[in-house]
Description:
This protein is mainly α. The protein has one domain: Up-down Bundle (Fumarate Reductase Cytochrome B subunit). Helices cover 63% and strands 4% of the residues. It is built from 4 helices and 4 strands. The chain has a two-stranded antiparallel ribbon. A hairpin with a 2-residue loop joins strand 1 and strand 2. Helix 1 packs antiparallel against helix 2 (50-79). The chain is elongated, with a radius of gyration of 19 Å.
Amino acid sequence: MPIERIPLGGQNAFGPTYHAAAKTLHWLTAVAVLGLLGVGLWMTGLQVSLLKLQVYNWHKWIGVAVLVLTALRLLWRWRNPPPPLPDAVARWERALAPAGHRALLLLLLAMPLSGWLMSSAAGISVIWFGMLPLPDLVSRDTALFEALRTAHFWLSRALIVVVVLHVAAVFHHDVIRHDGIFRRMWLTRRA
């Protein structure tokens, strides 16, 4: 028996909006990812110290949180499709939007997984928020660690590009076109 998928969001002046759960998962992920990218760019230049160790731990912990949030987002989205795009959205934008969202979600899975794998290959177990030991995904392996470090670096750059494109699209729709795309994901009903 097929699963009935009904958009559960509300309504605003521009049409259907996302459900509060989807909005919450989106904005928690957005804040965490922006923080992780900023801290990730900063922390690599730190001198070896207790601060660097603490920052790296927090980076890993929030990275795993992003992995969990992204898995929850995918589960939510599987059961609850996004609201339809407004009629004002051009055909080429309708074609590109799903590809952009898939790329973003794929990177939100790949980045934390590559970091977790990198930590495992370095022989450093991740203990989530200092309380929950996570399994090492691979054995200690210096060559694998270096390959994963390179992969994590390039995935971070790809994520930065996709996030910038995502924000540019939001700016285009909200500031230039005024078509309500951004307001579908805003936290309040009145946007």
